[in-house]
Amino acid sequence: MSAMVKLRGVHKSFGALHVLRGVDLDVRQGQVLVILGPSGSGKSTLLRTINHLEKVDRGSVHVDGQLLGYRQAGDRLYELPEREVLRQRTQIGFVFQSFNLFPHLTVRQNLMEAPLSAQRRPRAEVAPLAERLLARVGLADKADAYPRTLSGGQQQRVAIARALALEPKLLLFDEPTSALDPELVGEVLDVIKDLARGGTTMIVVTHEIGFAREVADTVAFMDAGRIVELGPPSQLLDAPAHERTRTFLSKVL
Ligand code: ADP
Ligand code: MG
């Protein structure tokens, strides 16, 4: 299978804070990668570099064979214009911890906004797509509701449907259930599991070890800006090679 995501030697600092310290990563098409790691280890920053929300200081990020943010001509790199960066970004869905729905738009309008305005697709095509996606996340009856009238779990399912409306090649999830009451976590994880089974390539940052065990093809443990180790769930979760991974798992399990 072909590489969907390829990072090589990625470094990122914020001022004096060296957050990503040389990350190499490969995610194949259809693969589900779960990233674990303590708070502050650089997980969100890593996801944001894959969506080009953060520019890397050093190294490269390829998504589906395209170098993010740059055009290569011979051995020179040229920064892409903002319009091209946005086009690349629409191919990558991002689901945040905090849902980030447009509060003044209905659920249906939330789903249709980006396909209509960013992708300039015809309404006649986008409207049925929105209905299909809402049905897929179990919210067909909420199309006309406003986000504030929904539970956190419902809002996050809308956010997932909205990401899918762009028909992305890749989905990134940044702690998608961390802001939810415990009884609402399951309904969101079930939607993500369903997508995983359907062959969507995804990278999921989460502390849900049970989810990682069940759904991930590969689990990575990140600490202090590096991927410390990476392997199939059975290996990383049950027989981690590194002391730091063992210490972290003993705290979250
Ligand atoms: P994680 O998601 O693993 O908790 P983050 O990637 O959010 O870690 O953050 C890693 C470190 O980088 C933290 O110390 C955080 O405060 C810092 N950081 C993240 N984004 C910024 C930013 N835009 N400006 C300054 N510091 C940042
Ligand atoms: Mg984070």
Automatic annotation (TrEMBL):
Location(s) in or outside the cell: Cell membrane
Membrane topology: Peripheral membrane protein
Entry EC no(s): 7.4.2.1
SUPFAM superfamilies per UniProt: P-loop containing nucleoside triphosphate hydrolases (SSF52540)
InterPro entries reported in the protein's UniProt record: AAA+_ATPase, ABC_ATPase_HisP-typ, ABC_transporter-like_ATP-bd, ABC_transporter-like_CS, MetN_ABC_transporter-like, P-loop_NTPase
UniProt domain ABC transporter: residue ranges: 5-249
Origin: domain of life: Bacteria
Catalytic reaction list: a polar amino acid(out) + ATP + H2O = a polar amino acid(in) + ADP + phosphate + H(+)
Coiled coil residues, start to end: none
Primary enzyme class: translocase
Cellular component annotations (GO), alphabetically ordered: plasma membrane
Keywords: Amino-acid transport, ATP-binding, Cell membrane, Membrane, Nucleotide-binding, Transport
Molecular function in Gene Ontology: ATP binding; ATP hydrolysis activity; ATPase-coupled polar amino acid-transporter activity
Family per record: Belongs to the ABC transporter superfamily.
Name listed for the protein in its UniProt record: ABC-type polar-amino-acid transporter
Organism name: Nonomuraea jabiensis
